[in-house]
Amino acid sequence: MSKPYHHGDLRRALIEAALELVVESGYEALSLRAVAQRAGVSHAAPYRHFEGKAELWAAVAEESFRGLLASMRAAVEGVDDPTERHIQLGQGYVDYGLEHPHQYRVMFGPTPPEDSEAARACFQMLVESIQYGQKRRAFRPGDSMEMALGAWALVHGLTLLALDGRLQDGRQLFRRLGRLQLEGYHAQEDPSRGYKGDTLPD
Question: CB of 34 within 8 A of CB of 72?
Fold first, then answer.
């Protein structure tokens, strides 16, 4: 059902209409014509801001990444313990994907944002979580980028498997697998490097 357009920011109104459409009808329903109808504007109006469906899709994906970023930030607010902070960060990721399945599909769909500030910020939170644990000597030394990629692979893979109906409880499984993954990140004695949790290797 269309609604009258009263905003001064047409681009913002179109993105909001697109998000509503995705939530109600699925990401497959996203089209410039459908969004124009939802926003209550002419079919030609979206072309003032988007060259085609791919640009509109990317704009909706960027907005959805901002939602993911907010979920991750909220999940770790006030959490200081490195291990629990990292688990909560991943939980915020999985929770957002499972609670916003259609937006999540758009985020990682055929035309994701080419240069998404929000997507970079989400991944940077994972990197900084690893670095935080390393500085606190809770996680072993190592390439924080590579370790963050492992964390992302886990949360992204579990989220998609759950959305595809291949997992019954992605949230609970993440907490178990997340802690299992962190066992490999935890600081522990390494005879080859002489490293223990309270000292850093030369």
Answer: no
What CA–CA distance (Å, rounded) separates 17 from 63? 12
Contact between 188 and 140 under an 8 Å Cβ cutoff? The reply is: yes
Kindly report the pTM of this predicted structure. 0.82
With tokens 């109808």, the residue in question is 37
Residue 190, beta-bridge partner list: 195
CB distance 137 to 55 below 8 Å: no
Low-confidence ranges of the chain (pLDDT < 70): 1-8, 188-202
Measuring CA to CA, how many Å separate 5 from each of 9, 29, 45?
Answer: 10, 20, 11
So what's the pLDDT on residue 58? 87
Which tokens hold the place of 6? 């009263």
Alpha carbon distance 166, 111 (integer Å): 25
Residue 94: name the closest of 27, 170, 14, 15 by CA: 170
Q: Report the C-alpha gap between 126 and 128 in whole angstroms.
A: 5
